[in-house]
Amino acid sequence: MPLSLVLVVIVLLAALGYAMGRSRALAAGGGSARTLNSVPRYYGSYVALWAGLPSLVLLFIWNAADGAIIRGMVIDRIAMATSVTAPAALNLAFANVVNLANGALNSDGADPNLLAAAGYYNHLQDLSGQIAGALVLVLALCGLAYALRRVRPALRARNAVERVVHTLLMLSSLLAILTTVGIVLSLIFESIRFFTHVAPWDFLFGLQWSPQTALRADQVGSSSAFGAVPLFAGTLLIATIAMLVAVPVGLMSAIYLSEYASRRTRAVVKPLLEVLAGIPTVVYGFFAALTVAPFFRSLGQMAGLDVSSESALAAGIVMGIMIVPFVSSLSDDVINAVPQSLRDGSYGMGATRSETIRQVVLPAALPGIVGAFLLAVSRAVGETMIVVMAAGLAANLTFNPLEAVTTVTVQIATLLVGDQEFDSPKTLSVFALGLTLFLVTLCLNVIALRIVQKYREKYD
Amino acid sequence: MINLRIPASPAADDTVAAGQNVKFAARDVNVHYGNKHAIRGIDIDILENEVVAFIGPSGCGKSTFLRCLNRMNDTLDGCKVSGDIRLDGEDIYSPSVDVVHLRARVGMVFQKPNPFPKSIYDNVAYGPRIHGLCASQDELDATVERSLRGAGLWNEVKDRLADPGNGLSGGQQQRLCIARAIAVEPEVILMDEPCSALDPIATGLVEQLIDELRRRYTIVIVTHNMQQAARVSQKTAFFHLGDLAEFGETEAIFTNPRDERTQGYITGRYG
Amino acid sequence: MTERPPALPAGPAGTQTAGAQGKSPALTSRHMSDASRARLKKRYAAEARFRFYGVAAITLALAMLVLLIGSIAWRGAGALVETWVSFDVYVDPAVVSADDPANPQTNYRKLVYEGFYQQFTPALSRSDQRVAGSLISSGADRFLRNMVVSDPALIGTTVRLRTPAGDDIDQMRKGRIDRSLPQAERKITDRQLALYDQLVADGDIGLGFNSVLFTSTDSNEPELAGIFGALIGSLMTLGVCLVCAVPVGVAAAIYLEEFAPKNRITDFIEVNINNLAAVPSIVFGLLGLTVFLQFFGLPRSAPLVGGLVLALMTLPTVIIASRAAIKSVPPSIRDAALGLGASRLQAVFHHVLPLAMPGMLTGSIIGMAHALGETAPLLMVGMVAFITSVPSSLTDAATILPVQIYLWADRPERMFIERTSAAIMVLLLFLVVMNSAAILLRKKFERRW
Question: What is the widest separation between alpha-carbon atoms in chain C?
Fold first, then answer.
């Protein structure tokens, strides 16, 4: 039974439950809602929840679990039929079976063992669907019947319904924690698998990055190296260039807008700056690769410099422009939080505007600005599309902004795209990089958010 | 009536001259905030080396008028000042006047102590530095010490000049703000309810200080506390709903008010 | 002081200089000295400089914005039109079966090229036929097939087929290839040029609205590539994201703002949410890869998975915006409802939520706009494949507009650059619409308590 049909049936049953529960409550109350503990529609909701919620939960759990179970059963079958035992080979065979079963792979001339397994896979899928459908429907009906029996005037239907809603709300808020836990666990697990191939020390401090594993041992560059220092250096270089653009421009824009600009100018310029923040990063990447990089290249040629067509400079500058609105809006908030009385104190002594800003407002706003700066760094470090499109793949250990460098995010994006064998160190290295990236940005964010928060408290 | 002619002799520095000069002269000053007519046709003369108190119920415009005297109202959006205000005979609202320069001559102390987020030393040194009053570090040190002594704060802070200014108590902060103002060596100090955020002991210290400062500076103080006005000022101006209801010798205003609004206020019928 | 004192005498004009010249008693003030005046001049110069930096910063940022949009519009404007070739094709009943015109074995290709060669007089030699064939798009047969399938009555008649020209011809028609260069230095041969000129002379070739861009899917031939598939993929993905992120986000915000006790756990949740909002998006892609693809075994490249990943990514944004909206509703409204005997939940759902709704919607729309432009995490869950079919369900392989842009940006053909820019403009248009909706919503319902 297809999933969507089961869902529709559950919804219909819940609706039916609502109607029945409501009318039953009214009937039990002798046609008047006054004698009931709650308003009739709460009795309806009560029955509907009993009918819908447990069955939905069951459906979800079943669907989450059946993939793994079926996979295990099919792999056992393949292992028995073909006497293959290596987990990697079995995984590959299973992928082929799934493709055969979906018709994504042409069945002509396929291994008959695999074909049989594909048939088995389809059979299991169907069976699972049918069992799930039947179980879920039975559960829904049971829930409906149980709840209907409990409907009587004394039932505190509203409290019951509200308890459920309350729980749902709480679960929603727990999802944030769940997401973090999911990120941490998935990154750590895969990273540990990576570190069984490559020592953490070699990863963090190695100077060579060439993740391509050769197919044959005698090929050129057959030994892959996973020293991430060139990536860290490239990330640092591009982030530094970006911050060199973003901080002065963003900060000065914020200062001008909050301290000098008339209300009208502010009303026009601020949204325009925010437009910069709303442009997707892939567009910046395109701009960097097709407009800015060639521009610097021809500029370099005129000056007799050899600028790579995928220079760190182009990527960094475009990234800086992308971060400008981020820095400026954060700084704007921070600067506006500086109490007017401090400005008054300074003006009252005959300071000019710029003296007041430089010597009173900025020092007062400094913690907040540092926080904004850290958040911007974290954003620059984690930015992917601009560097993927404009910074290149060459893992050069260099601090020359005119050369091509690669970054952590570029490697994550490019190593995982394409064929995916989940056990090779090449693929697993992505998770180690991801973990590093996550930890670094996490530290930056936590520190920055704490600083900003402290700062807000100070002037609230 | 006050003699409006500016005498040729320069004002004495430390002594109260007998024939005092007019420091501030205001004629027909009106202030509008958007549509609100906050100050209506104020005429007043403030003499050199004199403490003038502005009193009146809240919202009467006394602070607004005070802020006209060093053009602090310029920093507010939608505030329009008209009329004639002269400092030493010079129209401070004339286009040729530079606000920065004006405010260096007419300093201000605010209602809430607002020390800068810097050290005590840097707070006081801020003014002399931006105005370039001190040629050397020694001179700056001397100025800071003199100003802190002038504000009666030196003995309390001399050992911790590098501590942040907002670590001081409220009363100390306000005296720091006064020290900061006198470090610029202004001619006039405007004080906008300088004691409203202070406890009685701190208030007493500040009042004592005002009395001493009078010998060197002209002081205009806004206060809602009538006892304070009576204690510190020589002249008192009573503002009411944007009008200057009465202006005269403090003693006369408090003992024998001519205006019935003043009478009502002083006797506590409203406030 | 009842009567007005005499007006002030006309003050000395330019009193400032008067003071400096020593006519005024204020001479004693240190602020009236010449040194002070010179210093003031310097201070004002510094002031002007500082102000200039501010103006320069804003100008620079805005100039970059103009340059960015301008360069893309300039490159992409050409893609709004495409070069079309029209010619007569005889739909031979011997080739096309009237019973089954859609049969994939039907050789429409042959019909198209036969018809096209007839276009030229004198008749083309064999080698010229090959040259002529390169003038029209290699996907021309698709257009004939669609025509005939939608109207089988055309079989046995001669139809006028309109098909895109090949990409080099298109670029030449748009003046991007300099025909005055020697043959070796341009992409078009002299022979192609001669045949092209013949078509121009007959009026059979010309520019027309580029409908292909908006109706077809990805293709290796730039003149046949369109964004329709990616657009549908984007809408599906965004739909999943919306359905998942907004209700959960709003629910979480309600809980945190209205019900959560203030304890360690809620503090931790709060830190978590703020943090997640700043985690690099590609990390969410890795999460989606391991959890949705590997653990739950959901299909790769599917809008369902893409939408779920984007939902996790936008969730913090929605929660933060919704919390701000709820916070801005004054407590007096809650108190009023509670005072009438409403339960807390009723007070929230009947009174607080309706008032907070505009703010929540605004935040959600902005979150969705961000999700629409997001690329990196979707690369991780495989939405980067070359897909030539329009997805029909949430589990079909699909691509999305930003990824399509990314894929096209890598193609060397000039026409792809043009199409990439056009696709960017479409994406930006969507974003502008969404953000304007958010702004309008905010303006309309803005309320001050």
Answer: 116
